[in-house]
Amino acid sequence: LGNIVYVDMPEVGDEVTQGEEFGAVESVKAASDLISPISGEVVEINEALEDAPELINEDAFGNWIMKVKVSDPSEIDNLLDAAAYEAHCAEEA
User: Fold this and answer.
1) What is the pLDDT of residue 39?
2) Fewer CB within 10 Å of terminal CB in the chain, N or C?
C-alpha cells in the first residue's frame, strides 16, 4: 500500500468475526480492507492512529489497531506465527 494516511477502526464494544472485515487502511495510492484474525469484542482501539495513522508505517507490529476479548479460544489454532506468515508471503510472491 505504501504510506498509510488513514485507518478506519471499529468502536470499543463492537463485535468482530474471524475472517470478516472490521475496518480499512488507506494510502495515497490505494485502500485495503482489514480482516479480523479472531472473533470477539473490541475492548480497546489504538486512538493514537486516529491523529497519526502513519505510525503504522514506522512500526506495523508495535502500533496495533485494536485489542479483542476472544470469544472462541479455539480460533487461535488457525493463526500463523510470524515465521509462518513470512513463509506464506514468500510463497505468494
Assistant:
1) 98
2) C
